[in-house]
From TrEMBL:
GO molecular function, one term: N-acetylneuraminate lyase activity
Keywords: Lyase
Protein name: Dihydrodipicolinate synthase family protein
GO cellular component, one term: cytosol
Pfam family, any one: DHDPS
Gene Ontology terms describing biological process: N-acetylneuraminate catabolic process
Organism: Membranihabitans marinus
Length: 310
């Protein structure tokens, strides 16, 4: 399978979710069902071990089993996939790349280490090690806003100039000033913004796609929206405003109530009812309850009816 580059890393990619049983173990049967379903959609590809896949709360044998299953399914179907090798520990992140490199993903996703913030020299040291370990497979950096080390547009240019093997970044995005700075960056990275802000990101001349929370609701609908954005930006923005309306009414109150990003992504996944994966999170984290799923589904069906018809 040919690896990705900053030129062809585009579009909608959807995270697998981590199905957790009542005894706190991983439901690998539901996980296979998820992967089979996602690899029959129109999206660009799937990826493992993002936030919704709870990469921070797995044993290493579980990590290996998840990615071996994904690679087997995707290679058989010739469906693109990326492996999330992130971990709070830089040593474990590097070892995850080393162990799964033979699975030949189209790219690896990583985050910077957590617990302590990294200065600029430490950032470069970490990236140099993991990029060398991944070679010749390219790397995508996930830089969430809640990270201990928050990177700026100038930081992205600094690291992209140093590491051509770093082909993309997943960011939280910002306001007009942030987009202006990102346009100046000119670092050659494929920039991926949050799914519910994709039309704005493309309109601002910055985004090439999304590792999409919106795709959790309906992958095919998210892909169709991406194509609409490319063909008709005004219509794409109109749909984005609908999505933002749903988020403001159905998701933001839950975030304010203390639910984590992982809990909310799993909620979005559960809205369609297409999978046996429940919104349960692995201990000690708490997912939304079934009645919350039902209430949020009603809001989504009212505001985003097209996402339940595609």
């Amino acid at each position: 399978m040919k690896h990705l580059s900053s030129n062809n890393l585009i579009g909608i990619w959807c995270s697998i979710q981590l199905p957790i049983l009542a005894d706190n173990s991983i439901d690998f049967n539901s996980l296979k069902e998820e992967m089979d379903m996602l690899t029959n959609t129109s999206i660009q590809g799937i990826y493992s071990n993002g936030t919704a896949a709870e990469f921070y709360n797995q044993t290493e044998s579980e990590f290996d089993g998840i990615n071996e299953m994904m690679a087997d399914i995707c290679h058989k179907k010739r469906f693109p996939f990326q492996i999330g090798a992130s971990h709070m520990s830089p040593i474990i992140s590097r070892e995850r790349i080393r162990r799964t490199k033979a699975l030949n993903p189209k790219a690896f996703q990583i985050t910077l280490p957590e617990w302590l913030p990294l200065n600029s020299d430490e950032q470069l040291s970490f990236l140099a090690e993991v990029i060398e370990e991944a070679d010749p497979i390219p790397v995508v950096l996930y830089s969430p806003g809640h990270s201990k080390t928050v990177l700026t547009p100038s930081d992205f240019k600094r690291i992209s100039d140093r590491f051509p093997q770093l082909i993309g970044i997943k960011v939280g995005a910002g306001g007009l000033e942030w987009y202006a700075e990102m346009r100046k960056m000119n670092g050659g990275l494929a920039v991926f913004v949050p799914g519910h802000r994709l039309a704005t990101g493309i309109k601002e001349g910055v985004a090439k796609g999304s590792y999409s929370n919106v795709a959790c609701i309906n992958p095919n609908a998210a892909q169709k929206w991406f194509e609409i954005i490319i063909d008709n930006i005004d219509e794409g923005i109109r749909i984005e405003n609908q999505i933002l309306h749903f988020f403001e009414e159905g998701i933001v109150p839950l975030a304010r109530a203390g639910y984590s990003d992982a809990a909310l992504d799993k909620l979005l996944w559960a809205l369609s009812g297409r999978s046996t994966t429940s919104p349960r999170l692995r201990w000690p984290y708490i997912g939304v309850r079934d009645h919350v799923v039902e209430d949020t589904r009603k809001i989504a069906q009212r505001i985003l009816p097209d996402f339940f018809q595609v």
